[in-house]
Design a protein that fits this description.
7-stranded mixed β-sheet; 1 helix; 4% helix; single chain; mainly beta; Phosphatidylethanolamine-binding Protein; two-stranded antiparallel sheet
C-alpha cells in the first residue's frame, strides 16, 4: 500500500542548510520554493526504496570514493509506479548543504545493480571528516525531462527547487511528478 508524501511549497530562502533528510517510507514535509504561490500544497505517493548496500543505516564502504571504496553507485530497487515513463535519481549529502553525489535522468529500470551509474552521473561519498548523512531520492515522472537541475559534485543549498522543477515537463505542463521516495544512510570518514 502506498503512503502519501506531502511536499509543501513555500517561498523561503534556504540558508546553507539542506532540510531534505528522511527515512524511506515515512511521511515527509519538504520546503520547496514555488515561484507562483506561497501556500500551495501538493500530495504525492511515496515510493519505498531499498538497497542491498545499506546495512543498519550505514552505507557500505564499496560505494564510496575513498581508499576503502570502489566509487560505484549503490544497488537500488523500488516497485514500478503506475503511469511513470521515467525516474530521476539524486543522491545528496544532507550534512554538507546537499552536496550532490548522484544525478541520473530518464531511468527506466526499477532494479539498478551496484555500479549502474557512470562516472558522469555518480561520485561516491567522500566525507572530509566525521559522519555524513547521504540520501538517495527516486522521483517517478509521467514524462521524461530533457534536463534535471542541480550541480553535480557540488553544494546545492536550494536542492528543493530541483525537485520543484521536475514537476514541469518539457512541454511546460505541471503535475509531472507522480511519486517520490528516498532512502537514507550515513558514512563516516576513515571507515
Amino acid at each position: 500500500m502506498k503512503k502519501r508524501l506531502l511536499i509543501i511549497f513555500l517561498s523561503i530562502t534556504v540558508l546553507g542548510i539542506c532540510s531534505c533528510g528522511s527515512k524511506s517510507g515515512t511521511k515527509k514535509e519538504s520546503t520547496v520554493k514555488n515561484e507562483e504561490s506561497t501556500d500551495e500544497v501538493i500530495e504525492y505517493n511515496t515510493i519505498e526504496v531499498t538497497s542491498d548496500d545499506l546495512h543498519d543505516g550505514v552505507w557500505d564502504s564499496i560505494i564510496t570514493n575513498t581508499k576503502h571504496g570502489n566509487n560505484v553507485s549503490p544497488q537500488l530497487s523500488w516497485e514500478a509506479v503506475e503511469g511513470a515513463e521515467s525516474y530521476v535519481i539524486y543522491m545528496v549529502d544532507n550534512t554538507a548543504s546537499c552536496w550532490m553525489h548522484w544525478k541520473s535522468t530518464d531511468v527506466s529500470d526499477t532494479e539498478l545493480p551496484q555500479g549502474w551509474a557512470n562516472e558522469n552521473e555518480y561520485i561516491g561519498p567522500y566525507p572530509p571528516d566525521g559522519t555524513h548523512e547521504y540520501e538517495v531520492f527516486v522521483i517517478a515522472l509521467k514524462k521524461p525531462v530533457s534536463e534535471i537541475y542541480g550541480t553535480f559534485d557540488s553544494i546545492n543549498v536550494s536542492f528543493e527547487e530541483n525537485l520543484y522543477d521536475l514537476d514541469v515537463d518539457d512541454d511546460g505542463e505541471k503535475g509531472n511528478i507522480i511519486a517520490i521516495g528516498s532512502i537514507t544512510g550515513t558514512y563516516t570518514a576513515g571507515e
